[in-house]
Specification:
The protein has about 400 residues and is an alpha/beta fold. The protein has two domains: about 270 residues, Zn peptidases (Aminopeptidase); about 110 residues, Alpha-Beta Plaits (2-Layer Sandwich), CATH 3.30.70. The strands form four sheets. Strands 1-2-4-3-5-16-6-15 form an eight-stranded mixed β-sheet, with helices on both faces. Helix 1 runs antiparallel to helix 3. The longest helix is centred in the first third of the chain and has 24 residues. The chain is elongated. The protein starts with a helix and ends in a 6-residue tail after the last helix. About 45% of the residues are buried. Bound molecules: nickel (II) ion (NI). The site of nickel (II) ion has 4 residues, from loops. Nickel (II) ion binds next to loops.
């Protein structure tokens, strides 16, 4: 291929990825309901040529690309689901489905993985081993799609797994790398304080669940500030509280919902017990009763050292020192962690914010979008990493 036509096909490839992203953006589907999305991915993958394409679960897709000789197996994952949000962008390709929106960038993730698959398919003669492209459903809704795919066997024989999240807090042009703990385990809980309602002017005739709930909330913070090693990262938030109907009525009960986030499995498992002893102590001291329900969410995302260094070097080779941002862990959750149970791996951020273009809205916002120039960075990271890991010659 001449320089000019290579350049031309590179541009065409970039444009194609943007087109795919817009298609996904316009046609979002909620978690576990990604039927058209997965069909589109399935059909597109088949159109590339001789890939082994399958459906590990109802709305996920896997493609296997085999190199010329046996070798390592690299899995690359993208999530494909959207959120129950009414889009407030007025793009020509804005969501056509009321109340559903790609507000986290998974439209871009699906498009980038298709782009990487196409580019690597075209270079398959340089590869040994296998690349497994995992298009995962339902990242946004527990129990999550990753676990289902793992149970369906998609990680059998995988040596390393990588994935990325387009990240609007990080500027386009930067690859965000985090060694070790990266994303927290997003557990949830519900507490109901059960008192005895009555006239708010006669509280001595009641068991005031509002006052007791207030005690419970403030005492729960002692778990973070007084009983947890200060070196550990732990968040405990009561984020929702409901009880009562009028100024002169004390309610029978108050219900609270919240989240606990940490990176340490041992610490995490100690939290429900600590919470319950506080809830039990305070409610029983005041003659009330309680219900407590604690649900474990995704495992924390902990990046493995050598794969992380490998991606760190890959990013530096592509974009130089200034193209890499060494970042701090984030307390958001990600079910990429399910894949990490089966192989060493690394999840990284692909900067997708752009202040000059006013692309600054946070993830899960009704005006969220990604800078489409970011897509090529994600594609290039995947392609370069795969060629480096599985290529017979030096990466090009
Ligand atoms: Ni997301």
């Amino acid at each position: 291929m001449s320089m000019i036509s290579a350049e031309h096909s590179r541009e065409a490839q970039k444009e194609q990825v943007v087109k795919w992203r817009r298609h996904f953006h316009e046609n979002p589907e909620l978690s576990f309901q990604e039927e058209k999305t997965s069909q589109f991915i399935y059909d597109t993958l088949l159109s590339f040529g001789n890939l082994k394409v399958s459906r590990p679960t109802k709305t996920s897709v896997m493609a296997k690309l085999f190199g010329q000789k046996p070798g390592k197996v690299l899995a690359i994952r993208a999530d494909i689901d959207a959120l129950p949000i009414q889009e407030e962008n007025d793009f020509p390709f804005a969501s056509k489905t009321p109340g559903v929106m790609h507000a986290c960038g998974h439209d871009g993730h699906a498009a980038m993985l298709l782009g990487a698959c196409k580019a690597l398919w075209e270079r398959k003669d340089e590869l040994s081993g296998e690349i497994r492209f995992l298009f995962q459903h339902a990242e946004e809704l527990t129990p999550g799609g990753a676990e289902e795919m793992v149970e369906a066997g998609v990680m059998e024989g995988v040596d390393a797994v990588i994935g990325t999240h387009l990240w609007s807090p990080l500027q386009t042009g930067k690859i965000g790398i985090i060694y070790g703990p990266m994303m927290a385990s997003p557990d949830t809980f519900t507490i109901t304080v059960k008192g005895r309602g009555g006239h708010a002017g006669l509280p001595y005739d009641c068991i005031d669940s509002v006052v007791i709930a207030a005690q419970v909330i403030s005492n729960l913070q002692h778990i973070v500030s007084r009983t947890t090693d200060t070196e550990e990262k732990l968040v405990l938030s009561v984020s929702q509280i409901a009880g009562g109907t009028a100024h002169n009525v004390l309610p029978d009960e108050v219900k609270m919902v919240g989240t606990v986030r940490s990176f340490n499995q041992e610490l995490r498992e100690s939290i429900p017990g600590k919470m319950e002893s506080i809830i039990k102590g305070i409610t029983s001291a005041h003659g009330a009763e309680y219900e407590f329900d604690y649900e474990y969410g995704y495992r924390p995302v902990i990046n493995e050292e050598s794969v992380t260094r490998f991606l760190h070097e890959t990013a530096e080779e592509l974009y130089g020192n200034e193209g890499v941002a060494l970042m701090k862990p984030s307390m958001v959750g990600e079910d990429f962690s399910a894949f990490l149970q089966k192989a060493d791996g690394c999840f990284f951020f692909t900067g997708a914010g752009n202040k000059e273009k006013n692309i600054t809205y946070p993830h899960h916002h009704a005006k969220f979008t990604v800078d489409e120039d970011a897509l090529d960075y994600g594609v290039s990271m995947f392609v370069r990493a795969a060629i480096k890991m599985l290529g017979s010659s030096e990466a090009g």
